[in-house]
Specification:
The protein is largely without helices or strands. It is built from three helices and four strands.
Length: about 130
């Protein structure tokens, strides 16, 4: 018999108890329409969907706000399935014609957790 995981009726706060700029808790549902997802299109209230699931990335952006968050903020409220490989569920890759290296496909620019294409001493993967 499979275990049933209880689903909360409302979302939990993003971890910032006194923050007034974050959205209020919302009612969790089994599904969201694209119109509902598209309403969450700012850095403080950032939802994206991919592979038919909806993710609230607001806390990720608040915790790691940097230029690497800009592509995610630009895509807020949209479906970003085309950024990922359907088989591996990881970021899509392509072959760079200059270096002949397989690299990550980033349509709006490099985003969090994607290393720079050229060596960069300021990029620290352990900071995530």
């Amino acid at each position: 018999m499979a275990a049933r995981v209880p689903t909360p009726k409302f979302s939990r706060p993003s971890g910032y108890k006194d923050a007034k700029h974050l959205p209020k808790a919302f009612k969790l549902r089994r599904y969201y329409t694209p119109k509902e997802v598209s309403a969450h299109n700012t850095a403080d209230d950032c939802w994206v969907s991919f592979f038919n699931e909806v993710y609230d990335l607001s806390k990720l952006i608040q915790d790691n706000f940097s230029p690497e968050c800009e592509p995610i903020i630009k895509a807020a409220g949209q479906d970003i399935t085309h950024w990922f490989d359907p088989e591996t569920k990881g970021p899509r890759t392509w072959v760079d014609s200059k270096t002949n290296m397989t690299w990550y496909f980033t349509p709006f620019g490099r985003y969090l957790h994607i290393p720079p294409i050229e060596p960069d001493s300021s990029w620290d993967p352990s900071s995530f």
